[in-house]
Structure formats: C-alpha cells, structure tokens
Amino acid sequence: AQQRKVATTVAHQAELERTSAMLQELDVIGKAKKRDIRKSRHYFEAKEKSDKLRQEALTAVQTIEAQLSRAKRSYAEALALLNVISEEVHSKRQDRRREPDDGTA
C-alpha cells in the first residue's frame, strides 16, 4: 500500500510539473501574441457584424420571396376569374346574335 501511495504521489508530481510547464509556456505565448490578438480583434468584430447583416438580408429576401409567391398566386386567381367573366360576356353576346329577329324592333 505504501509503494502504491509513493507511486501515485510521484505520478501526481510529474503531472503537476508538466501542467505547470504548459501553463508557463501558454503565458509566454500569450504575452508574445498579445499585440497580434489585439490587432486582429477588429477583424473578428467586423466578421461578426457582417455575418449578422448577411443573416438579416437573407431573412428579408426570404420574406420578400414569400410575399412575391403569394402575389403571383393571387394574380393567377384574378386572371382566371377575369377569363371566366370574359367567356361569359362573349357567350352572352353570341347568344344575343343568334336569337331570331322577331321584327318588333
């Protein structure tokens, strides 16, 4: 049991040292790249703004496409009704022309 405790302690110490070394390396890299990070920040902010505007434009286009589709459907229905009315008027005119003239006019 004592040997396992010592082995665990040694493994823990080795892991602690490795982690500590990595954190120090990360800190050094962070300090070295701080200027680069600061300089590139505006790019990411601009990209986020651009993505938001693109999404808003896409939503607007989809809304307009839906409205256009509804308007086309309404137009087609109105055109069909006008065609029916036109046919009825044309039919009535032909019927009046076919009626025999009784000479009372």
* Low-pLDDT stretches: none
Broad shape: rod-shaped
Tally the helices: 1
Secondary-structure element series? H
Q: Quote the average pLDDT.
A: 92
Short description:
With 105 residues, this protein is mainly α.
Written overview of the protein:
The chain is mainly α and 105 residues long. The chain contains one helix and no strands. The longest helix has 97 residues, at 2-98. The radius of gyration is 41 Å and the shape is rod-shaped. The model has no long low-confidence stretch (mean pLDDT 92).
Question: What is the topology?
Answer:
Blueprint: H1 2-98
Pick out its properties.
105 residues; mainly alpha
